[in-house]
Write a structure and sequence with these properties.
The complex is a heterodimer of chains A (about 500) and B (about 90). With about 500 residues, chain A is an all-alpha fold. In chain A, about 75% of the residues lie in helices and about 0% in strands. In chain A, a hairpin with a 2-residue loop joins β1 (about 455) and β2. In chain B, about 60% of the residues lie in helices and about 5% in strands. Chain B has one domain (about 10-85). Chain B has a two-stranded antiparallel ribbon. Classes of the chains: A mainly alpha (about 500), B mainly alpha (about 90). Chain B: This is DUF3311 domain-containing protein.
Amino acid sequence: MNLAFSGPDGIIILTLYAVVMLLIGYLAGRGQKGLHKSLSGYYLAGKNLGIIALFFTLYATQYSGNTIVGYAPTAYRDGFSWLQSIPFMTIIIAMYLMFAPRLYVISKRQNFVTPTDWITYRFQSKAVTLLAIFLMLWGLGNYLLEQLVAIGHAVAGMTGGTIPYEWAVIAFVFVMLTYEWLGGMKAVAFTDVMQGLVLMVGVVVLLAGALYLVECDFTDVTRYIAEREPAKAAAPDLETSVNWMSMLILVGFGAAIYPHAVQRIYSAESERTLKRSFARMAWMPPVTTGLVFLVGIIGIMLFPGLDEQGSEQLVGMMANQVASINLVFYWVMVLFFGAIVAAIISTADSVLLSFSSMLSNDVYGKYINPHASEERKVRFGKIGGIIAVAILLWIAWNPPATLYEIFVLKFELLVQVAPAFFLGLYWTRLSAKPVFWGMLVGAVFSGFMTLTGNDTVLGVHGGVIGLFINVLICVVGSYMTSVSTQSRRQMDEKLSMEI
Amino acid sequence: MDGKVKEPIRKKWIWVVLALILLGNVPWYWPKGIIEPIIFGFPSWAFVSVVFALLLCGFLSWLCLNQWNLVEEVEEEERKGEGELR
């Protein structure tokens, strides 16, 4: 996209953001000698995040710059049925409510660092642990890849190609790696406060500008759509409704058990902090995806007749128009585009930190060198994370000719770990073998559906069908496995709420 | 803290209400193609969907604050204790 503000102004703002992020990272790590010697110190900010940092890190992790750049065009193409983006981001909190309260208590008692720690503790099965590690690392890796690609597009778009795509990615990845190296989770959470704030303000201003362009009359926009493109305003057919419901399930379960999301439960300073952060998070979808939805809908009137490729540029075109209103809007839009880049980074950094923590604690700490010092484990994860980013960048720039689709798999795989949490926390009968087979069959099935181009069947996502099969195997299999009274009693103790 | 322990998953009514809100949010019960009347700029079905979406936010936010209480008292007591020691 070519923006009116392409060039030097964009570069100045981006540099400013980068400097602020580095500064925050430096301050977060300064004077904390123990930080790099402790897994929970480095990866979970010492399990001591207060309400402001916890809330913003939840927010900035869940809402990426992609949410804005990608969701507005979807609203443009799908019309009012994209209202589903509000409830599917909200339902994540309901899923948290199903498992976070108890997992928080057990994680404090057992000093968990990664989601895998829970799985090892609950099932004591090498097979389940390894499969879960594999699925989570795969999902996280692909998620990270997506964010890395997005950084390049956003920066190149903002500076009108003055900063080429590759250089943009390398520069910002360098910034991200540096502050993460310096301050770990603490740096990630503190930079999230800045990144989350600018994103919130940016979305509000973009909508204000868009409303200004249509003379503040949203009813006019809807009437326009109803006349010209009635399908986008009309009540959807049953298949769209089924797809809507399926999306609630897929995103709800998938996003709540993202490894970095689970680790934010572990990082909370107290139960009080955690529930207050969630209570605020529950209100964020209407003011984030909700506003982005409105921007997309207004776009239908401002830029009619865009094809799929053209509509992907919607936010850029909109920002361009808004920037030309007057000088104030101009500078706010420059800040806003910087905010999009910052928001992508704030999601990428959390994913990378989670990825590193699993390398440290799960791969290295459980299997390669269990007796190593925590300092050594942390270092392994940090270096492993950098290598992973290098590999992902290489893949992003040299996409393999075939099987590229395997890099798209994300939610479908992650969501298969859900039963190990949701059932495992409450159902003492649930045993390791059925969990393993459920996870495996669910992942293979939904992966196969996506790879063969059948994302949905009658509106239901492959990942959701896979999850259903997975749960079925878990439940039936566990009933068929005999469990002694003694081992059930032991399990009861393990899952107890004593702190 | 006896008697005050609250865990959302153990309360069936929470999940019944949640299911009802979701069923209200998904526009499966509207005749296909309907737009009018337009309410506050939204097609009527979309307006109702937004109302349920906001209801969902409010309900979940309220649940977090009022129906979740496992170890808060113990933790806050401990903290107070630590504070006094300092």
